[in-house]
Amino acid sequence: MNRHPRPPVARGLFVGLDVLMGALVVVAVVTAPAGSRAPAALAAVVLLGVYVWGRLAVRVQQRPISAPRGAWWPDTTWILALLLPWAVLLWLTPGALWIAFPLMFLQMHVLGPHRGPLMVLATAALAVAEGLLVQVSPGDSWTGFILGPLFGAAVAIGVVLGLEALVRESEARQRTVEELTAARLHLAAADRENAVAAERERVARDIHDTVAQSLTAIELLLRTAEPAIGADDARARRLVDQARTAAQDSLADARRLVEDLTPADLHRTTLVGALRRVAGRSATASSDGATPLTVDVETCGEPRALPVPVETAVLRIAQSALANVSRHADAAHARLTLTYEPEQVTLDVVDDGHGFDPAVSPTRGSGGGGFGLPAIRSRVHELAGAVVLESAPGGGTALAVALPVHEAGPPPGATVPDPEMTA
Prior knowledge:
Layout: H1 8-30, H2 37-58, H3 72-92, H4 100-135, H5 143-228, H6 233-259, H7 271-282, E1 294-300, H8 308-329, E2 333-340, E3 344-351, H9 372-382, E4 386-391, E5 397-404, E6 420-422
Parallel strand pairs: 1-2, 4-6
Antiparallel strand pairs: 2-3, 3-5, 4-5
Helix pairs in contact: 1-2, 1-4, 2-3, 3-4, 4-5, 5-6, 5-8, 7-8, 8-9
């Protein structure tokens, strides 16, 4: 059921109806014949008393437009009680005929669109009968005594039904607005949840590709420097200096991660320069502290500035891939190849390590790590790129990532087909 009360305009009509009813009752008493003025005043007082009682008891102006109307008590009882003193007043003074018009409007509002028109027609019939039996004189035209009440009845029915139709339409629109508002709030909440989840995943990837990888490099450098202390102090100092530099870079990465800026390695340099810095930090001892790792950086095509999301993704993928090489591959050599093409940029990371079987590679959260490859695939998927991974036990690993280059990347949250291809 619609719980909205009638609008202020509709409630204001009842105030106007009250004023009209009181004014017409006074006119009826004033225009009564001299010999009938006292009984007319008494009938008028009774009529106004019943009217005021009904207005206080029924309070139709506070009901919703769709609420049931026309019940025997108090709605119909009030309307019938009004007709009795009005009929007496109509018999006593011709001026009481005008009271039929506010009565008809009141009957339509109180009894509703079903019983209201029947009561209005009954009131019109009573007015016509009074005019023809009492007021019409021999030789007078009786047309006005018939058409006047009938025309008033038609106007009352049409106006009230039209007004209530407008109110219902207004309430229907209000319900639609409320439903749309609720739907918008629901969608906004869902978008916030999706944004939080996406941001959480992005931050996890960035931490893995920056702070976590820098800490890993620092740990490897210090582990390698430990046996050199006392035996080769120069080498130990060099490794400690590299660890200090890696810690400084990690701190800068952490600060920029908090500020959501571009990676520290891209600050005031090109993508190729940033890749060389990452390669230089990764050229450390392998995970067992015995096999040195060298990393070469090559470019193909004419280097050019790329959109920030693409450069950031290429750099993060290179960091993550080289971190995997350092931690798991036991490789002596790795090569980064950045290829600039008209519509895309391609990054190839190849190492000569012991390789692995992609079908049984560690999963995210397992004891062996395994966050790097899923993070790489997630980044590539967000930019509508493609990933090719080739590896075999004892055969090294080759990772190829292709990212499309446009003036404006895909819209945030856009759904694209999974471009992942695993050989």
